[in-house]
Design goal:
Blueprint lengths: L1 H6 L2 H4 L1 H9 L3 H25 L6 H9 L1 H33 L4 H18 L1 H30 L25 H5 L1 H8 L4 H5 L6 H30 L11 H8 L5 H33 L17 H20 L4 H8 L1 H21 L14 H19 L1 H25 L5 H8 L3 E3 L2 E3 L3 H8 L10 E7 L11 E8 L9 E3 L8 H18 L7
Antiparallel strand pairs: 1-2, 3-4, 4-5
Helix pairs in contact: 3-10, 4-10, 4-12, 4-17, 4-18, 5-6, 5-17, 6-7, 6-14, 6-15, 6-16, 6-17, 6-19, 7-8, 7-14, 7-15, 8-12, 8-14, 13-14, 14-15, 17-18, 18-19
């Protein structure tokens, strides 16, 4: 149910008009291509989730398959994507509310954000209850529209005959060329993401593997019915260049079919869809931020939960960014809606690319296991998926309208790795190192942070590392063991020289069973000691 609620939102009910205007009657082909890509990615993700359910989901899989940088990238990029979705849905919902009440857009959006934040803070069960009813309303609406639209197209409604002329009139089936079908994927795929949320929610289900399998079995039908089918009917009912498509294509279609009160009905449904996506978006963003904090890749405070098991600080942190998006809508209301639609498209493609690559690597490592969910025709379709994602990114690079969003998304990725990932582990204070990463000593039942001498002694660092040295480390196996006594594991660390004299230590793990948290701690300790003692690196 979470997957259904996350996949149908304002991106379909409102954003589909943008795709139809850009593509023409062939818009449903754009959604079909996006749907095929989403289905393949979901199948790959389902295989990994069924074998190893995790709240961190694909961030954990990327880290295991491709390395820490990939897990870090997937986690932060996916969180960024969903907080943008939260802001986007809040803006869309604010626009719907202003249809009924006279209020500033920013205030209406802010009220929706506060309501859904409160819902997520209560408990996981309250989130699930809201999502169940939201999803029910949306599914019933789409099914009803499909029934009415099909009856209208085949002339079964009074006063209307069979008419498919809009598919070829007004410039033909491809009025702007075949390339427009591919160019619009960036916008369309934004409205189709969210199905993968089920792999995050599966970790909290009583039977995670069964939950993933059930979601995989219905994803194809959901995409074909909800997206491809409804968009096809929109292009049959309305001319693709109709001005009515700009506001709400579903309202325009119902009005064209002679359904009384169509605007009131669809605006209520759109508001329900917005609240649903706000609800599931906050859930997803907060869980990903929680996992990042648990993996020591976000502030440790975010890992705390209340007595009901809700990650309060992670939810509030994600909500704050959503509020900032609402402020953007207030400052620039004429452009923020389309900007949010486009700017997140490339980010989710990067995440999907890393998911696909992770599945290929992990499948080769677990080929002998009895997997509950298997990717079809491996490795052929896996390679096709990677190729398809790369092709979309390449198309963006050569498309004037999408090029800026691609470079902006790449810059965000580079910024996350270069600004957050690398320096964070080089400049950690000595006391903070002990408090945050579990390098603590038990004394009278309390944890105390170690001194610089303690760290040198416990890590086996008599002197700061030199280029070419290999030293043995003994560090806490994982921060989760802090407070339960010292659990130590051996890690071999060597420093690697570069061509200049400012070489930085690097980690070479000799024991495969050592967890990533250990490696990160060893790297941080080596960097801190080097920086604190102000010792020059060895010369070339």
């Amino acid at each position: 149910m979470i997957a259904i609620g996350g996949v149908i939102g304002a991106g379909l009910f409102v954003g589909s008009g943008v795709v139809i205007r850009a593509t023409g009657p062939a818009a449903f082909l754009t959604y079909a291509l996006c749907g095929a890509l989403i289905v393949l990615v979901m199948r790959m993700l389902g295989e990994m989730a069924a074998a190893n359910p995790s709240t961190g989901a694909f961030a954990d899989y990327a880290a295991k398959a491709l390395g820490g940088w990939a897990g870090f990238s997937v986690g932060w990029l996916y969180w960024y994507f969903w907080v943008i979705v939260v802001g986007f849905e809040a803006v869309a919902g604010g626009k719907v509310l202003t249809y009924w009440i006279d209020a500033p857009l920013w205030l209406a959006s802010l009220c929706l954000m506060m309501m859904m934040t409160a819902t997520n803070l209560v408990s996981v069960s309250s989130f699930g209850e809201f999502e169940f009813w939201f999803a029910g309303v949306k599914v019933a609406t789409i099914v009803g529209f499909l029934v009415l639209g099909t009856a209208f197209a085949f002339g079964l409604l009074p006063g209307h005959g069979m008419d498919f002329s809009n598919l070829s009139a007004h410039g033909g089936f491809f009025p702007d060329g075949v390339g427009a079908v591919f160019a619009a994927i960036v916008v369309a795929i934004f409205s189709m993401t969210g199905t993968e949320v089920v792999t995050i929610a599966a970790a909290e289900a009583p039977d995670p593997q069964r939950a993933v399998q059930r979601a995989m079995s219905t994803v194809v039908a959901r995409i074909v019915i909800f997206f491809v089918g409804s968009v096809f009917l929109l292009t049959v009912i309305l001319p693709w260049n109709s001005l009515e498509l700009g506001a709400s294509p579903y309202v325009a279609a119902l009005r064209h079919m002679g359904i009384g009160g169509a605007d009131q009905i669809m605006n209520a449904v759109v508001l329900t869809a917005v609240l649903s996506c706000l609800n599931s978006g906050l859930y997803t963003a907060s869980r990903m931020l929680f996992v990042l904090a648990a993996r020591q890749e976000a502030p440790a405070q975010l890992v705390k939960v209340n007595r009901r098991g809700v990650p309060t600080f992670a939810i509030m942190g994600s909500s704050v960014v959503g509020f900032l998006c609402v402020i953007m809508a207030w400052v620039s209301p004429a452009t923020v809606f389309v900007f949010l639609l486009n700017s997140s498209g490339a980010v989710i493609l990067f995440v999907y690319l890393l998911i696909a690559l992770s599945q290929i690597v992990l499948r080769r490592q677990t080929s002998g296991q009895n997997l509950g969910v298997r990717m079809w025709l491996f490795p052929g379709l896996s390679i096709v998926t990677v190729t398809g994602i790369v092709a979309v990114l390449a198309r963006m690079a050569f498309d004037y309208a999408a090029r800026s969003q691609l470079w902006l998304s790449l810059l965000s990725w580079q910024w996350s790795l270069g600004v957050i990932w690398s320096p964070h582990w080089c400049d950690v204070p000595l006391i903070g190192l002990g408090e945050q990463y579990g390098l603590v000593e038990r004394q009278s039942g309390k944890d105390r942070p170690p001194s610089a001498a303690d760290i040198r002694r416990r890590l086996g660092l008599g002197e700061p590392p030199r280029v070419g040295d290999t030293k043995g480390f003994a560090v806490a196996a994982h921060p989760a063991t802090a407070g339960r006594g010292d659990v130590l594991q051996p890690v071999a660390v060597r420093t690697v020289g570069e061509q200049n004299r400012h070489a930085r230590p690097a980690v070479d793990v000799r024991a495969e069973h050592v967890q990533r948290g250990t490696v990160r701690l060893a790297r941080a300790a080596a960097h801190v000691l080097k920086n604190r003692e102000r010792r020059e690196p060895a010369g070339p």
